[in-house]
User: Fold this.
Amino acid sequence: MTNAVPSNQEPVDPEPAEVWLMPVFTARAGHERELQSVLSSLQAESRKDAGCLEYTVFADMQRPGTYVMFEGWARLEDLEDHNQQQHVKDFVEAVKPLLEVPFSVTTLEPLA
Assistant:
């Protein structure tokens, strides 16, 4: 027997997939504390955004001045809405002069 959808019914969408990201920030020399401050503020505000599952900033203990963020969103739409929030737009502008290089974002996918 197959799992075909009867012709009079719409297929049911599977649960929306969670979205996990890992942005990395490298401070320009002398701007480490300021970068930590703006990252902490972003963390506090972003945790309030709808669909936020995780939003934590870590200091890379092997690379001083490097900070790794681990963020998870219930759905892609939640991430997209988050990226349109004023606190995110303000952060993106405020962080530019504090970075050695533009920040990178890696999309992650759980193995199981």
User: Anything to note?
Assistant: The chain has a mean pLDDT of 90. Helices lie at 32-46, 76-83, 86-95. The chain has one domain: 19-108. The beta strands are 19-26, 52-59, 66-73, 104-108.
